[in-house]
Amino acid sequence: MYMYGEIAYPPGGATGLTVLSLTKNSVTSSIPPTLGRLRNLSFLDLSWNMLSGDLPAEFTGIENVTYLDLSSNFITGVVLPEIRDLSNLETLILANNSFTGSIPSELGNVSSFFTLDLNFNSLFGVLPNSLSNLRKLRHLKLMSNFLSGFLSSNIFYGLSVH
Predict the structure, then answer these.
(1) How many Å from the N-terminal Cα to the C-terminal Cα in the chain?
(2) Pfam families per the record (predicted)?
(3) How much is the pTM?
């Protein structure tokens, strides 16, 4: 099925939805704040669409999500510090968008992270030392940004190398 147009979620009665995958369609507009009402959602994949605009803060209401992929869209603005509230999040893929600003230190509070992919954005500044708190992290992807400074050995202390 090929879908296009705007996301109008959550539709009536969809608040029990646990998986939503709309990848590789032509979904347009911005991510609606109402997606944050899908409290039971554990898997959300909106990659490879034409979504634009900033992430709404209400979006972090999907507190049970473990997999979140918003890659390959036209999303702008900053990576929300409120992502720290998604305490079950294991995989966050925001690659190939137009995020700006620095990587929020609050991401170091998501101790469940296994994969953090911020490749191909316009992020700048130094890596926050708080990333050293991510003991379960196995995949850290930061290619093609504007990061600067030195890599502190503390960031990778205790992480397994594979």
Answers:
(1) 38
(2) LRR_1
(3) 0.91
Which residues lie closer than 8 Å to 35 by C-beta, 6 or more apart? Answer: 7, 9, 10, 44, 59, 61, 62
For residue 161, being part of any structural domain is answered with no
- For residue 68, give the nearest of 38, 47, 37 by alpha carbon: 47
- Distance in angstroms (rounded) separating the CA atoms of residues 18 and 38: 8
Q: Assign residue 48 the CATH number of its domain.
A: 3.80.10.10
